[in-house]
Amino acid sequence: MGGTFDPLHHGHLVTAEEALWQFHLDEVVFVPTGQPWMKADREVSPAEHRYLMTVIATASNPHFSVSRIEVDREGPTYAVDTLRELRQQRAGDVELFFITGADAMLEILQWKDPEEVLEQAHFIAATRPGYDIARFEKEAPTSHPRVSVMDIPALAISS
Questions:
Q1: Which fold has domain 2-151?
Q2: What is the Cα–Cα distance from 127 to 61, expressed in whole angstroms?
Q3: Which residues of the chain fall below pLDDT 50?
Q4: What angle do CA 2, 19, 94 make, to 5 degrees?
């Protein structure tokens, strides 16, 4: 589950738990962004602080872990680089799932190497109350077979 996590909140945890069960995942790895290139125009807490907040918030769930993969990377961090590295780290035929908000999913075509990003993982786009799912379905690459929409009806929280 990638995100800035500034801060990680209950909505992130509920979304991760729902994805774990709805998609029968073995674990959810939280990946706090290092230097998020899409948020260069706003102040973001230091990566190490966001990493530690995420470790503390996820510690009670044995199916959750936190990766330093982006926190330790120099320069701007891109999902495509992270997915390549995760695929190299995990030997065998492991399927990667990338959990994100439907709002972020709308921006995926602006990401670095978006087609490769979509090929590297199955994307789970989480929605929340008040979110215009029709807009998401119209604009996002939902026709891509590796993009699933996951409705989170109880979430009215956003960082």
A1: Rossmann fold (3.40.50)
A2: 23
A3: none
A4: 70
